[in-house]
Write a structure and sequence with these properties.
It is a single chain. The chain is of the alpha/beta class. It contains eleven helices and eight strands. Strands 1, 2, 3, 4, 5, 6, 7 and 8 form an eight-stranded mixed sheet that branches. Strand 5 and strand 6 form a beta hairpin. The termini are close together. The relative contact order is 0.19.
């Protein structure tokens, strides 16, 4: 009996995947197949490469300033992320450049999207870091990656919770982690009602947008001014992924669904790892009885 773990997209909320994996391990459950989309692909790869402990230790130390230092506005408008720093992070806490998916102890897949055709791409072989990089390339933050003649971007655009990929790779039971269940609108309203200084380039761009809007539309009312660029991007991503997730899982539901309640964590609030990881752990504790029942029932059917 093969157990598949589908780790969904969700940017900073994705640190909860660490808590999910650790708590499943505490219960003696070690998935045979791990498929991830976006941040799910990153955490899943780190786990299978044997670096999840180092990743967890590091994310606990993250501060707002650390996250801001990853932002980089370049004149070519390729991305808002410092690619060199990101590459160093991936090598240190996920895997080396020479790590290959075929050499992992368990099956792994990362989901990306073909920028030209919109098709879903499953990355199941080749360099592990390339697969992760393609899957996390959220438009507007990361530049697309080039692979096999295709420009690839974030898999959350096509399959935010890759249940179907787990089943295709042979999973008999699929545990899915959906980070998008309670997100639409909540982060937006929270930020609009409690304005905080944005880090680095976000502050500069936001200021320019607000100044332009005020000059054109003639209003200084906070509620009448447009959202800043980070909030606009975050809310747009949230809407897209929520709608796609609902559609995909309606057609191919998992055997067990874990839905951490993390709507208060914003797109780039990676420094809030502790609460995300704890929420992941708590969600698993709640479903352990159901999981044991499903596993026992499956074993009885095999006998």
């Amino acid at each position: 009996m093969n157990i598949g773990l589908a780790l969904g997209s969700g940017s900073a909320r994705g640190w909860s995947h660490i808590g999910v994996i650790n708590e499943l391990a505490e219960a003696g459950i070690h998935p045979d197949i791990i498929c991830g989309t976006s941040i799910g692909s990153l955490v899943g790869a780190s786990c299978l490469a044997g670096n999840l402990g180092e990743l967890e230790d590091w994310v606990y130390t993250l501060t707002r300033l650390d996250v801001a230092r990853l932002l980089d506005f370049n004149i070519a408008l390729e991305s808002f992320i410092d690619i060199t720093k990101l590459h160093g992070f991936l090598n240190k806490y996920v895997a080396d450049d020479d790590a290959d998916i075929d050499n992992l102890d368990k099956q792994y897949a990362a989901v990306a999207a073909d920028l030209e055709t919109g098709r879903e791409i499953w990355l199941t072989e080749g360099p592990l870091i390339e697969a992760v990089w393609s899957s996390i390339s959220l438009p507007g933050l990361f530049p697309p990656t080039r692979k096999n003649g295709k420009w690839l971007v974030d898999g959350g655009l096509v399959n935010p919770v890759p249940v179907s990929v787990c089943r295709a790779l042979g999973a008999d039971i699929v545990i899915a982690v959906n980070l998008n269940g309670d997100i639409v609108g909540r982060h937006f309203h929270k930020n609009r009602n409690s304005v905080k200084p944005e880090p680095g380039i976000a502050r500069k761009i936001s200021g320019a947008v607000k100044e332009y809007a005020t000059s054109v539309f003639g209003s200084n009312d906070k509620q009448e001014q447009p959202p800043n660029i980070i909030d606009s991007l975050a809310c747009s991503v949230n809407i897209t992924q929520d709608r796609i997730t609902r559609s995909r899982m309606a057609g191919d539901p998992p055997d067990l669904l874990i839905s951490p309640r993390l709507s208060g964590i914003g797109l780039l609030e990676f420094y809030r790892a502790e609460e995300a990881i704890e929420e992941g752990k708590n969600c698993v504790k709640k479903i352990i009885p159901d999981l044991e029942r499903i596993l026992n029932l499956d074993r009885q059917q095999e006998d």
